[in-house]
Fold this sequence. Notes:
Layout: E1 12-15, H1 25-40, E2 44-49, H2 61-71, E3 81-82, H3 87-99, E4 103-106, H4 110-114, E5 135-138, E6 144-149, E7 153-158, H5 159-163, E8 166-169, H6 177-187, E9 192-196, H7 203-213, E10 219-223, E11 226-227, H8 248-258, H9 272-282, E12 292-293
Parallel strand pairs: 1-2, 2-3, 9-10, 11-12
Antiparallel strand pairs: 4-5, 5-8, 6-7
Helix pairs in contact: 1-8, 1-9, 6-7, 8-9
The structure holds glutamic acid and zinc ion (ZN).
Residues 106-108, 123-124 line the site of zinc ion (ZN).
Amino acid sequence: xxxxxxxxxxxxxxFAPTPSGFLHxxxxxxxxASFLDARAAGGRWLVRMEDLDPPREVPGAQDAILRTLExxxxxxxxxxxxxxxRHEAYEAVVQQLLASGQAYACTCSRxxxxxxxxxxxxxxxxxxxxxxDAAIRxxxxxxxxxxxxxLQGEYRxxxxxxxxxxxxxxxxxxxxxQLAVVLDDAWQGVTDIVRGADLLDSTPRQLYLQELxxxxxxxxxHLPLIVQPDGQKLGKRYRxxxxxxxxxxxALLRALRALGQQPPSALAGAPxxxxxxxxxxxxxxxxIAPVAALAEAELR
Length: 300
Ligand code: GLU
Ligand code: ZN
């Protein structure tokens, strides 16, 4: 077997919160894991505000998210990029995809699509609707897209059968997450994406967009969804522990344990920066369990 290639020395990671709410324990885990993976590799760590959907934005959430990151010692590199400032770049690609016939206008009403949950049935594929007052959908190829996730292993999805042509610009003019995330990760030179497993089934769509637009494919690590001891989504029965500045160290230690790391008990009560120095030096992504249920004790 040929030797595996050396790890590239250039690493750019990112945390990309949506300001539709405040940071909770689950998002702290995503922020922390992407931060540690970047810092342990000597890489850069960026923060990008995914503020694509003003109606769903909670006033004050952007500032609160950034303050919470700082309170937890998670200091980012460079300026925070806001997707609300990137509309021109998204629109240029929408126009390019419309012009090449890869994308098309869809006028299906919500009511029509209600009967087809999951996969868009392609009603407007050949309809030649005008793109104004219409959603713009990307034509997907009738094939599988797959990749090897650093934690979850191989993941494959048949875009034609399982997803169907997907929206890149909504009828109300808002740009879709799938489009914006791919363009921004490439534009910011992101090499490594560490994020929650809830986005695993979005990744094949993103791989297709990267291929179509000639963009590099980053490495992916999808973190386990953190669930309650009873397997339910966090926050259903147990309240997700609030993140307060004076509890930052304790929250970091809980998050580290949820990520399979083993901080020594001597770190209890230590400031966030001290805990993070230890965590960067000892970071081992292979210790993360692909599925993680929080222990009862972690929720107190
Ligand atoms: N903005 C997305 C979220 O908060 C994350 C996007 C990503 O990491 O790709 O769920
Ligand atoms: Zn349609």
